[in-house]
Each structure stands twice: as C-alpha cells, then as structure tokens.
C-alpha cells in the first residue's frame, strides 16, 4: 500500500475525531442559542478569544471522553517493522486492524496518534482534579487568613511563602524518590490533603443550613458518608468496595501538584477576602449575628468567584505543564503511560532523526495550555464588561 | 488661535447628541443638548445620576472613550468647532484653554510625583516656560488656592496632603495654564461639608479674579445656587430647563424642576406637616425612554396625546433672559399652587428610654511601626465620653464629618467592637462588653442597622428573597420555610417593593430599591432600635425622599427608635427629633432639633450649618468658612478638639481652649454644649439662617 500524503492524513484524523466534532457542535449550538441566560458562561460566546479558547479546551475534553472511539490502535501494542516510521505509513499486514499509523510510530513501534489521544485522557484525569483540590485547600486556608487576620494570617502567609520559596523540581524529586515513597510521608500528606475537601464541604453546608437541622443533617451526613468512602480509597487505598483507588505514583503526583499550587491560590484568596470583608453586606451579616464561617463561605466566597474561575483555568494549564515536566523527568506516572510528558521524553532521544514522536504530544500539550489561557483571558475580559 | 470676539459666547453647544455603542445596541446618553457659556459666566449642570451631565463635560473635552461618539450637533469653543477638530489641535486646547477638575482628587494627581513638579509641568508643556518661571507661578497659585506654607506643599507628595488640600492642588493645576473655560465635575462630592464650603468659596473667588468661565456639574441644587449664574437642569439625556439661577429657582417652568425642589428637604419642610414628595416611578433606562416627553410617565401634568405624541423642543419663557423649558404645557400649569399631602400624619409618640449610653469610650491601640511590633503604641481615641439616651419612637440624629467617630459609635453599639469603658444599656440589659456573637437572638434582632452604600449592602450573588429569608432564619422567625417565605413577602410589601422582586438578583435593582431591601432585612426581626448609617446619602434626590419617607412610615408603625447617622444637616433637620453633633470623637452639642438649629450654637455646629448649601433663594445665610482640615484622630489637638479651627477662640480668656477639654454645659432643658464660651457670648450669637420676608 501507498504511504499517505498529509492531506489524507488530516482527512483520516478528522474522520477519527468525528464523535468530538459532533459533541462540540452540540455544545456550541446550544450555548450560543441560550447564551443570554447563561451568565458569565454565556457571555464567553461574545468574545472571539474566549470562544477559541473554549473550543480548544472542549476539543481535548471530548477527546479524553471519547478516546476509546477515536484511537486507531492499542496505545501500548507494538507492531513489528513500524519502528520510527513517518506519519501515514501503512501497516505491513493489517489483519483487520486500522491500516495506517496516522502520525507514525515511536521508537518501540507504537502508534503515536493513539498514544496522543490516550495521553489527553491521562492528563485531563489528573490536572483538573489536582487543580480543584489545590483550590479547596487554598480557599479553606486563605479565607480565614484574610478574614481573621492577625497571628493566624501572619503564620499561614509565612508557611505559604516558605513552600513557594522551595525549589519545585527538587521537591518533586524528593516526593517521588523511592526513599521517601516507601516511608509514611506521602500517605500522611495525602491523608491531610484529601481530608480538606471533605471538611470544606461540611463546613460550607453546616454554615448555611444549621438553622434547619433536618436539612443540615441530611446534607452534611451525605457528604460525610460519601466523602469518607472516597477518602478511604484515595488516601489509604483501603476502599472496602474497591471503587475508589489511586496508584501510589499518581497519588504522589497529586500531592506534589497540590503542594505547589495551593500556596498561590491561598495568596489570591487571602487578597480578595481582605477586599471583600470591608463590604457592607459582610457587616450586615455580622450585625445579624452570623458565624464567621457562614460569612466566609457564603458572603465572601461567592463574590470572589470571578477572579477564582479565571485563575482556575490558568492553573489547570500550569498543572498540565507540571505533569508534562514530571513525565519528562520520568517521575510520577507509570513508565508505559501514554501521558504527554513521558511521550515527549521517550521521543527526545531520536529527536534530530525522527522528530514526530516527540512533536505530536508537544503540540498537544501546547494547544491545551494555550486553549486554557485563552479561555481564562476571555472569561476575565467578559467578566469585566458591564 | 484665530481672532475671537470676547463679547461672543466662549462655549456654544448646539443640539449635541452623544451615544455610547455597546455590543447590544446604541445607547443615547445625551440628546439635543444646547447651551451657551458667556465669558466670565458660571454655568451649572444639574441632574440625577445617569442624566448625562458628565457625558456633556467629557464631550466638550472630546474624551468619550472607545465606545462613545458624538452623533450630532456641534460644540464651538471660541468659535472653533471641537467636534471636527484634529487630535493635535485638541491636545493644544486641553489643559491650556479648557481644564477639567474631577470628583476624586487623588485620582487626578500622580502619586509618584511631587506636587510641585506636577504643577510646573503645565506651563512648561503648553507655553514652553522655563522651570524657574513655572515654579514661581506654581508658588503664587498655591498661595492663591489658600494653602498654608506653599513651599512645603510644593515639595510634598499627593498622599501627604488631605483630601481638601489635594482638591485645591488640582484646582491650582487647572488654573496654571490660565484656561478660558474650567469644567468642574462634582468637585466637592468626595469632601466633607466644611471642607466643601472652603472649596466653593475658593472657586467663586478665583472665577472672579481670573475671569474664567465655568461649567459646574453637580447633583446638588444648593451648591449650584451658591456658585453659578446660570443653570441647566438635565433629565434623562436632555436639558429640560435652563436659565438664570434666580429665574429657575423662583419661577421654575418645568415639572421636573418643580418635582426636584419638592423632593429636597428645604428649611421649611417638616416630616409631619409638610413632608417631602418623592418623584413617583423610576428614572427611565437610556434604551427604554418613553416617546415624547421623557419625564411624561412621572409627571403630574401629563396629558395623553399631547405629551407623548412627538419630540418636544426647548421653548423660551417669555419675559426672562434666556430662560427655556422643554415642556409643552408650561403656560397652562398653575406654578404657584402649593402641593398638599393627601393626609397629615401625626407625630410619632415618644415612649420610654430604650437605649442609654453612659460615658462610653472606645480607644484603639495602634502600633507605631507596623513592621516590628513592640516599641511605642499610640492610642487613637475614636469615641470619648459618649453619653445620651434614646427613647422609643424617637429619631436621634448623629451628625458629624468623616473621622468624627460616628461609625465607631455604630460598631460599638452593634457589638462588632466592644467599648473600652462606659455602659451601654439596651432595654435594661447591659451590652457594652458583649460582642455580637455572645448576644442572644432577641437582642441582636431588636438592634439592627441600615447601611450607607446601596450597591454594597446586598450580597450580589444571592437573590433578594433568599437574603431576607436568611435574616428570618437567623432571627428564628417562623417555624418552617413556607412561613418564612410568607413573612418575607410581607416585608417586601412593607418596603413597597413588588413581590416578584423576591426572585431578583441585586444587580437587577436600582440603588433606591436595594436600599429598600436593606431596610426590609433590618426589620426582619421586628427591630426596636435601628441604626441608619447615612442611608440616603448615596441616593439621588428623588429616591432619597422616597426612602426617607419609608423609614419615617415604618417608624410610626412599629414605634422604632431610629439612630440616624448623617453629615447632611438638611435631612437631619427634616426628620430628627433630637440631634447630637460629634467632632473628633467628642459629642460637642446635644439637644432637640430646634435647639441645635437655633442659637446658641456650639461654634462647630454653627460652621457646619453655614457650610450646608441650601437651594432656596429666600434664605439668607451667614457664611462661616473654617480654616484648615479636620485634625487626625491619631494626633488630636490638646484641650478642646475644635480649637484649631474655631472662629470664637479669641472670645475665651487665656489659653483655656488649648489646655482643657471643655465640660458639657447645659444651656437649656435638654440642650448641652461642650464649649468654654461664656454664657453671655453664647446668648449673643446670631442665627445662621435668615428667612427673607416673602
């Protein structure tokens, strides 16, 4: 069979991505139709930059969701004679498999295209959740630091600065080094980190509903049961039902990412809190005798959402890069994993001869981060307008 | 510059229309606006927020931003058309021929540059003057704007000056190039009344001295009356009436102007016999203006088929000099008719004492250096020896300028801070050292507060209904959600808001509506004592009247004690039963409203009364302008707190004022003063206001 030209390669890739196109068209169609009722999200569609960013982000999101339908080969399978082949090379004997390696093969003859698609799933499985946990921790510490001020603020800010001053790469090496991995440190840290979201949600709901004990017990109880179930699996790998689980490697990555991001979020939240706590509605809540946690969680936090959402988008981007960096150093996720960082590292050795195995994931990484940054820009711009 | 005949108008605006373009639509901000300013004339532009008065000023400067555009008409300055002038020509004009003074002085000064350098720049750029020459001119002008010690001021950074001093510098800077036209956009709104009085005096004198024409923008009719020769009343993007001050004030010929005057508390108004009249309805949004007369839907004289049939032009009023009105019916309306309220209400009955403060003090300790704790600590005395009582159903006004301790007083009373010393009794319960978390629900719900800034008083991310229901939950009103919801709807009825508003978000409400929600929230637990911290000062005149009336009505119904904190003496005079005047943490005068507003005065009260601009040509006012600014509470003067600015100090023998804090003297039943002045001098004081015989 003939080798494919670039036009054909892109054509075939577009066909593979069909489920993604359909989903994107649906999202865009519905959102643009109802954009006047969708608040800030709807306003995003008034800004070209924001729309492009959003488009790129949901492209990768749907790629991750439909990865099983998109891939042409098993991302881990090796096909003989396909080592380092250029994009569009046909398989010698397909046997019912897809006839081409659309974006070529890597140094051990795996399909670069499928690995890239699966890599999106790897990355999007970790980055948003790591960013979310960073946010919960940053918020849970930043609110009281800004609201109460005084010693608490001084202490927490000092610790945050300490963490920020520590060299990031060194921290990662330490965290994933076997000497540390097999001690209790990662487990203890995970135990603390994953506990914060549960406490956060419980305080949030209790502050709101303590005046209605029936509702409060239901909500807080629900969070407690569900949270502890997930917690047992995620932090200690001891889920009795075996539903929640996380490999020690990914756990380490999680801990590392959260550790690096949370102090920055903390500082942002603290700053916004200092500003918002002087507003009259906060004073009004104080004069009707609300507790400090209600004021922080329900009077201050919702009104800080604008800058936080923007920062959240940016932070997913940073986290993605961070994951890439970790993968590149061979830290974190398993060596076989198709995540973009590791793939770039694999392709690095033969970069001058066969650039495609490294370039493809590099472009993917770049486009996702670019999309997130554009989305954040669009959101910021639109949230500032009337 | 081309030849220009000084007998011609300096600024001629003809049929000016300005629109802003958003992504949804074109928003016309100013329509068919015409006015002329003659040399040496001061023209006032008055109107409520959103009426387009600032847009006109920015249009003259051609500084409308990216969205704004002049869509019609012409602006001629000394005969040149500004609308078609090149950017280069404009740059030469701005700052040298036309200067503008903005509301916020700190925002007009570069914080990183010494004041002197900023002043010197102006003649150096526009006239190419030498540095020495420019500096000499700057020094002379700083003296002219009556700043003490000009050399020190020139060498200071803007943040080292007080707000009043900063605004004087901004005025000096505007005058540096000796402009032919000065545009002042609410130049004193951010300042205290006594400081404002000084600035107004200055602007008037300078206008006379330099012969500068002025375009003075303000929402305050009294201020316009004091500063301008002519005025132009704007409503919803249009000029509705223009003419000489005396013509418009005494012979108004537009229903909006009339409604405006009925809504402001003039000295003759009385909350029971002659209440204020709010303008019904709301200010129309720029894209929802009615056909025909913009004021039509809110007008008492509206005639269907006539007023809403077509656009209405300005028409001259016979017999007056350049007096015009945009009303089709001004010849038919009986302008002399007095407005009668539908029913006279009875004064609310004053009951027993509900709140008693006895010698309350609040001191803050401030570390001298923030970086290293330890070392010296300074004590800021925010409240000193505060003693008074308030009775059920009574309105006690607390008056004073910024920094006088009235907000600290509110915080201490509410329990957000605890008093350093003294006793606060609320319904025979001692609350002075009980912070709010420790107070029981009853105490908390019976003592509530209405806040100043309507845009800040509601949580922007919760619906109006949810916020009121939350207050009900906290005050343990109602057994279940349905009951609370019912009560919430009743509260909306109480503050005269439609029930649909329960589902609205605060940003969908206007300022006055938000303030009503704030009032509803305060009354959720049947508050017995309500502290209203400048509840109407941020609202427009017409809305102000409505909110004030609402507060009065609820007070009569619920027999609430109202502690009304304000700096606006007109409104205080209108609605309060007793007045307490504060200065630098001290109560300087306390008495019934009549006692405080008539001699004998405390010298500070006298100055404060004189500083308030009054929009009534029949009132003659003695002008007392205080020197300097309010001292900092960090570093209060020795002895009497007011001695640094007092005009009566020379009448006190010796240096008593500088050494001793005066005692509280009772001059009449229930009327107390904190002053060293001897009784016979107090007796000889003359009233600040004189009503000319009508």
From TrEMBL, chain A:
PROSITE patterns: ABC_TM1 (PS50928). GO terms for biological process: transmembrane transport. It is found in: Cell membrane. Gene3D superfamilies: MetI-like. Its main location: membrane. Keywords: Cell membrane, Membrane, Transmembrane, Transmembrane helix, Transport. The keyword Thylakoid does not apply. Residues 120-376 form the ABC transmembrane type-1 domain. Belongs to the binding-protein-dependent transport system permease family. This is ABC transporter permease.
Automatic annotation (TrEMBL), chain B:
It is an enzyme of class 7 (translocase). One of its GO terms (cellular component) is plasma membrane. It comes from Rhabdonatronobacter sediminivivens. Residues 11-261, 355-609 form the ABC transporter domain. One of its GO terms (molecular function) is ATP hydrolysis activity. The keyword Translocase applies. It catalyses: Ni(2+)(out) + ATP + H2O = Ni(2+)(in) + ADP + phosphate + H(+). It holds the Pfam family oligo_HPY. The complex is composed of two ATP-binding proteins (NikD and NikE), two transmembrane proteins (NikB and NikC) and a solute-binding protein (NikA). Keywords: ATP-binding, Cell membrane, Ion transport, Membrane, Nucleotide-binding, Translocase, Transport. Its main location: membrane. The keyword Nucleotide-binding applies. CDD domains: ABC_NikE_OppD_transporters. This is Nickel import system ATP-binding protein NikD. Its EC number is 7.2.2.11. PANTHER family: NICKEL ABC TRANSPORTER, ATP-BINDING PROTEIN, OLIGOPEPTIDE TRANSPORT ATP-BINDING PROTEIN APPD. It is found in: Cell inner membrane.
